[in-house]
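Researcher: Next entry: Acyltransferase (Ligilactobacillus agilis).
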Amino acid sequence: MSRGVLITKEETLLLKGIAILMVVIEHFGQIVGLGFLNPLGPIGVFLFLFLSGYGLTRSYQKSGRDRYFIKKLQKVYVPYIFTVCIFTLWVLIIGKKTDLPLFIMELLLIKLPQGSYWYLVLMFYWYICFYFLTFIISNKRYLVTMMMFFSILIILIMNFNRGYIWQFFSFPLGVIAAFNVENYDKEVSSLQSNNIVSALFVVALISIIIKKLPYVDSHQLGFVDTIVQLSLTLSLGILIILFRDILSRGVLYKINIFFGGLSYELYLGHAVSLDWVKEATSINKILIWVLLTVGITWLLKFLTTYFNKALYKHIVN
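Model: Predicted structure:
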């Protein structure tokens, strides 16, 4: 890996593949009642947000604010629009009610079609915060400090929703990593030292043990569980990033790269019928959910690619 590059484009795909598999496996665990898989989802979201913070900062360093929001709308919001349309069609197919005001609120992320899409709300908060903060703050340390402040503000706005608390550090850590790519060799060799790695493993192990204590396990929405999940997410997320080369070998590499290329569409697509399959789980419904997930994922990929190419041709011409 060349100096000045912390995470290559290929490694970004690799980590996105790991992230989306963690999220989907956690949701599959919810379907079949495997509660021990629940911690995987927050770790996957941590990876997504870390990569968003890192990628956004690197892009800003190279290109500034050129077409900033246009790029984000094309990459993130356009697939979501298609998803809301597909979700509305799905709701009608299964015989549930919907209406135009609800459809519009879902398009605007005022209401979410499905709970898993809370991640998009957090991403848009960060896109907006990053854009305006870089207008008024040029000092890196002050910028990161203000981002931590905004992380607290987002948690307050979202009424201390535990999902947002678990991701308190995720996006800002990606920004910090991007600001320190020139010191990659020194920083990573320091982080990968036995003491740091051992400490992260110990934190993760203690978090898992505490999380499985009878009291904590029976109060999954409680304060202790929230703090434990935060420490578990942070420690394991950082370990995955530091030792991603281990997951870059053989079949694992091919699997993670493949899913990394479809990660966002799969995130959106697998949630469309997720609540339906959870309502009354059966083998048939699980199979239908899998088939729908595959179909919707590829449909979103096709629609988004086609739309963005058409938009690009229109802008160029």
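Model: Note for the record: Residues 283-316 form the longest helix (34 residues).
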